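Justification of computing resources. Each target in the renewal requires a structure prediction run like the one illustrated here; the chain below, 173 residues long, is used simply to show the kind of job we budget for.
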Amino acid sequence: MTDAAIENWPARLHQILKQANIRQMAYVPDAGHSKLIELFLADPDVISTVLTTEEEGIGLTAGAWLGGQRSVLLMQSSGVGNCINMLSLAAMSRFPLLMLVTMRGEWAEFNPWQVPMGRATGTSLHAMGVHCLRADTPEDLLDMAESSCTFAFEAEQQIAILISQRMLGKKKW
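Resulting structure tokens:
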């Protein structure tokens, strides 16, 4: 992969998700997802829904699937804690769930409140039956995105790609 492709991973990720027939995107505003969110908001073929809390996204993904559409849920690791009870809906109803989770509480974190959930994100998702992959580089993320779309929508599984804080860079406030 070229340096330019690595730098522009949000655009490539958007293309991968579009090729997988994603037609709905739900998100809680997040700096780590900001470029991808902007691409989806500008895309007339995708319904983008801003959420007030992350667990609403679980219901939205269920409704999208029941309505014949594929969706993706974007959130930060701190939002995973908000979703734990709602993840039982995905597990018991056995509908596809694709989540892209930007990590906090890791490398160069400045906010101590982010550390506990950052540490518990993968474990919490696993406990609820969600398969987790970890992307530490743009190459990892792009490769995992393609396979995760197949895993979610063809095998009807629940999957989250955890996007490392180091890959996203240090937060600047």
